[in-house]
Specification:
The chain is an alpha/beta fold. It is 32% helix and 31% strand.
Length: 251
């Protein structure tokens, strides 16, 4: 059985939950926030790591940015590519492991959004940050958005349910209190067998992530409670980190 991160059935079955209409509709506002936090102007080059359906990549391309979207889910990339073709947008879509991806041209901005860190080991996450650092031009910006340990502990729930048409989806959540979360998903379509997806991922607190970014070489690290630039607190919905690759000769 493949690691849950590489199980395309998981991403296909959960697409409507992970990317509901409200989340998709909020994409332009999220990009507004990212651009305000970083000051990166078109036609800058952007690398969207774990781009998924390509919602951020497509919005950036609409605004004149040169964008590469990287993901391992071929089903999502097919939808992203279809979207860019329908709109006549020039986006490079790459099916690859973002931890190891090396772009042909350095980026002015690297994005890693919507809790795309923590699926593997800490060593893999450090490799991801090193990859992002190497992908950036000097003075380029990295933006990370994720659920942090502080936020999760403040608002922890143990189970919830969703409905997608006639399909019911249940989720049970288990927290070890030390950084690991297990989520067991059950997808119950009508007249079909139940599909179960056990998942596990790592949560970091803000101090841990800042230290990891510093270890990777980043400087000028700022933290926020949203892509709008709100102050980070335990009541925030997400943790946003903005970090810079130093100019040449500056550390």
């Amino acid at each position: 059985m493949p690691h849950w991160q590489h199980d395309e059935d998981f991403w296909i079955d959960l697409q409507g939950v992970l990317f509901d209409d409200a989340r998709l509709a909020g994409t332009p506002e999220e990009i507004d926030g990212i651009l305000s936090l970083t000051g990166v102007l078109p036609p800058a080059t952007v690398l969207d790591m774990a781009c998924g359906l390509g919602r951020h990549s497509l919005e950036l391309a609409r605004r004149g940015y040169r964008v590469t979207g990287v993901d391992e889910c071929s089903a999502y990339l097919e939808q992203a590519e279809q979207g860019s073709e329908e709109e006549g947008l020039d986006v490079e879509w790459v099916e690859a492991d973002m931890h190891l991806y090396s772009p042909s041209d350095p980026a002015d901005l690297v994005l890693c959004l919507y809790s795309s860190i923590g699926y593997r080991s800490e060593a893999d996450d450090r490799q991801l940050l090193a990859t992002a650092y190497l992908a950036l031009r000097p003075d380029g910006a990295l933006v990370i958005e994720l659920m942090s340990q502080e936020i999760f502990e403040e608002g922890i729930v143990t189970k919830d349910s969703f409905r997608e048409g006639d399909t019911f989806i249940d989720r049970r959540i288990f927290w070890d209190g030390a950084g690991l979360v297990r989520m067991d998903w059950e997808v119950r379509p009508p007249d079909e067998a139940v599909r179960r997806y056990p998942t596990e991922f790592r949560l970091y607190n803000r101090a841990e992530l800042v230290a990891m970014l510093e270890d990777a070489g980043f400087t000028n690290i700022e933290s926020f409670g949203s892509l709008d630039g709100e102050r980070f607190t335990e009541e925030s919905e997400m943790l946003v980190l903005v970090a810079r690759k130093p100019r040449k000769g500056v550390r």
